[in-house]
Amino acid sequence: MTALMDQATHLRSLARATARQATVIAIASGKGGVGKSNIAVNLSIRLASAGKDVVLLDADLGLANADVLCNIDLPCNLAHVISGKRDINEVMVKAPGGFRLIGGASGLAKMADLTESDRQRLVDSLQQIEQQADYLVIDTGAGISPNVLSFTRAADHVLVVTTPEPTAITDAYAVIKVLSRDQSDRRVSLLVNQTLSEREGELVYDRIARVARQFLNINLLDAGGVPDDEHVVLSVRKRTPFVLAYPKCPASVCVSQLAMRLASGVASPVQPEGFFDRMSRWFRR
Ligand SMILES: Nc1ncnc2c1ncn2[C@@H]1O[C@H](COP(=O)(O)OP(=O)(O)OP(=O)(O)O)[C@@H](O)[C@H]1O
Ligand SMILES: [Mg+2]
């Protein structure tokens, strides 16, 4: 009897450990400054306004961080969780527009240097989020550092952001190439930001998708375009995300369409095991 109960308890804890709800969307780019953080914040707001529980993990170590765009103070971040000083639920802050934000800060810069117990604390904490939320959006830094890769490799969907500039396109292709080397069911899509016309966005997507199909043998999904829109610049100055400050501006309309497409299942989980199980596996390589 006791043995049976032990087994049941064990099975229940196993089920809990593998229960997985959140769809994980990593936002990446080759070149810096192409609009990742703005897309991450505004997309999170739009997904939240559709009634979803959204957590945005700011893993971008650049200057324009999500907390700055949203004008909120983050007294603690993931570094405090890794060091055991705070629980993950204590470092999540409710952000304008209804999503919850976790600051990544410098704790993530040294991910590869973490001790086994620090790493376990990180993975356990993020697993909690994965089990609570509908979406986990991760704003990664620019480029293909090991840090960025540990997130993109484990995500269900990687949204690669580029602008129409040739330098940004070349760097976006380099990221897609690295992603294509992993044997994985993960979806990869391209979002063209700061387009001067819808046609320009389509042309950039067509060009990269064709080369990716031919040389990398991958099917690059089309995440659409976001126009070059002065409301984005104004909203960054006001420290209010543009979908809240200017809900009808062209950039807001396009991000809303993107959120609708993602919510309709384009980004739904494709990998059977949990995100952070996979992430911890990548860490160990
Ligand atoms: N659609 C747009 N229209 C006009 N300006 C834009 C648009 N998207 C981004 N920008 C401008 O580009 C700047 C950089 O955007 P953002 O900080 O989101 O880029 P990033 O890719 O996160 O940068 P980093 O690589 O440094 O993290 C914004 O402050 C804004 O001025
Ligand atoms: Mg950024």
How would you describe the overall organization of this protein?
This protein is an alpha/beta fold. The protein has a single domain, classed as Rossmann fold. Strand 3 and strand 4 form a beta hairpin. Helix 2 packs across helix 12, helix 6 packs antiparallel against helix 13 and helix 8 runs parallel beside helix 9. The N and C termini lie far apart (42 Å). The relative contact order is 0.18. The C terminus is likely disordered. The structure holds adenosine-5'-triphosphate and magnesium ion. Magnesium ion binds next to helix 2.
Secondary structure layout:
Blueprint: H1 2-18, E1 23-29, H2 36-49, E2 54-59, H3 66-70, H4 78-82, H5 88-91, E3 93-94, E4 100-103, H6 116-132, E5 135-142, H7 146-152, E6 157-162, H8 166-180, E7 187-195, H9 198-216, E8 221-227, H10 230-238, H11 242-245, H12 250-266, H13 275-283
Parallel strand pairs: 1-5, 1-6, 2-4, 2-5, 6-7, 7-8
Antiparallel strand pairs: 3-4
Helix pairs in contact: 2-12, 6-13, 8-9
